[in-house]
Each structure stands twice: as structure tokens, then as C-alpha cells.
Amino acid sequence: MSENRNEQISQLIPIGKNEDVEFSSEEADAEDLEALQRANAADSRQERQGS
């Protein structure tokens, strides 16, 4: 019974599908650069709110 329960639980646990990737400015297109600017602006806003 315990084995069946463990199997059911393991089916419910999400499996990570994201990979840790490094940003490459050489391979970045215009959308990547725009996203980077938005992310930096969001980081700046968060830092100002935290102070």
C-alpha cells in the first residue's frame, strides 16, 4: 500500500523543465535586448522600493 501511495505522490510532483542558461550578447536579438532592459528596470524599481 505504501509503495502505491509513493508512486501516486511522485506522479503529482512537478518535474523541472527549465534549464539554467547563460545570456550571450553575441547571440541576442532585438527582443532579447529589450527583455534585458525591462528586467534591469524592474530590478531597479524593486531596489528603490526596498530602501
From TrEMBL:
Name of one Pfam family that matches: YfhD
Chain spans, region Disordered: 1-51
Comp. bias regions, Acidic residues: 21-34
Protein's name in the database: YfhD family protein
